[in-house]
Design goal:
Helices cover 43% and strands 14% of the residues. The chain is built from twelve helices and ten strands. Strands 8-7-6-3-2-1-10-9 form an eight-stranded parallel sheet. Helix 8 (188-208) packs parallel to helix 9, helix 9 packs across helix 10 and helix 11 runs antiparallel to helix 12 (309-327). The longest helix is centred in the middle third of the chain and has 21 residues, at 188-208. It is globular, with a radius of gyration of 19 Å. Bound molecules: 1,3-dihydroxyacetonephosphate. Residues 22, 138, 177, 260-262, 290-293 line the site of 1,3-dihydroxyacetonephosphate.
């Protein structure tokens, strides 16, 4: 293994006790998040909200990197400092969402393929100049009794690997994100089967396309029962099946697995990560790259008002701290209550 900068960056992103904040919602997705607090999204409100998150005092104790959206990497804090510099000054690595979203896969009725490869080499070089040191590309797969098709699995795996190879050429660590969506009534067994097939295809393509897995991170779903399943698996079963799946299908050379939260409750996302780490050590670091499960309480506390910024920052800090504890298997549900007592009111 050649020791190089990509390996160092990948390792820094999964440093002990630290994880990644996904703040790279597209304009459509951030509107969905703002809808939950009845707020019309505007460029200034998106900027203000992200400034609150990025300037949270002490967040760098638990956060190693932040994934930005194309608009956000070009925006600045109120004092004029560009966001990538705001983060870098705290020792947080800026990252960038490199794909341009999911579109219907041709000749299928409802399967999706992720687009954004055209012109990607130039965009990645620009993002590197703007301060990004890692990137992400998300592919999605729906579970039914028949889906995902092999066609969908391999089309997305090919694109993920093309993106990852271009990232490594540009000096960016690729986060490879194949997300098997957990909506529906499927069993945990079905989730396990589909996630396994997806991971096999992804690693086949990554190796075929010469990607150095030591300089990558994997951002997968956890193996869950469908959100609408009648008899859903509990925390220990989720942890066991997810680990079993990754032990069989993810090379030990991958430095870290940084889970997405994917619509789980904040507490579930933290408890599942905690249970997996409690049975460690594992070949890879097991960490988080959560969007909703880190931001939910902060968004509600902010409620679109500058005056609520300190409360929003406390909420975000608190969730980041709990997920940091989960990285060491040291989280307990009793820790959920502490913020209410004003444990941290800097
Ligand atoms: P969630 O944690 O909300 O699933 O978001 C993570 C992410 O980056 C999805 O691409």
């Amino acid at each position: 293994m050649t020791h190089n900068e990509l390996h160092e960056t990948a390792k820094a992103l999964v440093a002990p006790g630290k994880g990644i904040l996904a703040a790279d919602e597209s304009d459509t997705t951030i509107q969905k998040r703002f809808d939950t607090i009845h707020l019309e999204s505007s460029e200034e409100l998106r900027r203000a909200y992200r400034e609150i998150l990025f300037t949270t005092p002490g967040a760098e104790e638990f956060i190693s990197g932040v994934i930005l959206f194309d608009e956000t990497i070009r925006q600045s804090a109120s004092d004029g400092t560009p966001f990538p510099q705001v983060l870098a000054a705290k020792g947080i690595l800026p990252g960038i969402k490199a794909d341009i979203g999911q579109h219907r896969l041709a000749l299928t009725e409802r399967e999706m393929v992720t687009e954004g490869l055209d012109g990607l080499r130039d965009r990645l070089h620009e993002y590197h100049r703007l301060g990004a040191r890692f990137a992400k590309w998300r592919a999605t797969y729906s579970i039914t009794d028949e889906l995902p098709s092999d066609y969908c699995i391999w089309a997305n795996a090919h694109a993920l690997a093309r993106y990852a190879a271009l990232c490594q050429e540009a000096g960016l660590v690729p986060i490879v994100e194949p997300e098997v969506l957990q909506d529906g009534t499927h069993t945990i067994e079905r989730s396990y089967h589909v996630t396994s097939r997806v991971l096999d295809a992804v690693y086949t393509e990554l190796f075929d396309q010469r990607v150095d897995v030591f300089g990558t991170l994997l951002k997968p779903n956890m193996v869950l029962s469908g959100y609408d399943a009648a008899d859903r698996a509990g925390v220990e079963e989720v942890a066991d099946r997810t680990l079993e799946c990754f032990y069989k299908h993810v090379p030990a050379g991958v430095p870290g697995i940084v889970f997405l939260s994917g619509g789980q409750s904040d507490e579930d996302a933290t408890a599942h990560l905690n249970a997996m780490n409690a049975s460690g050590p594992h070949p890879w670091e097991l960490s988080f790259s959560y969007g909703r499960a880190l931001q939910g309480p902060a968004l509600r506390a902010w409620d679109g008002e500058w005056a609520n910024a300190p409360a929003a920052q406390r909420s975000y800090y608190h969730r980041a701290k709990l997920n940091s504890a989960a990285r060491a298997g040291a989280y307990t549900s009793a820790m959920e209550e502490v913020l209410i007592d004003g444990e941290r009111d800097r």
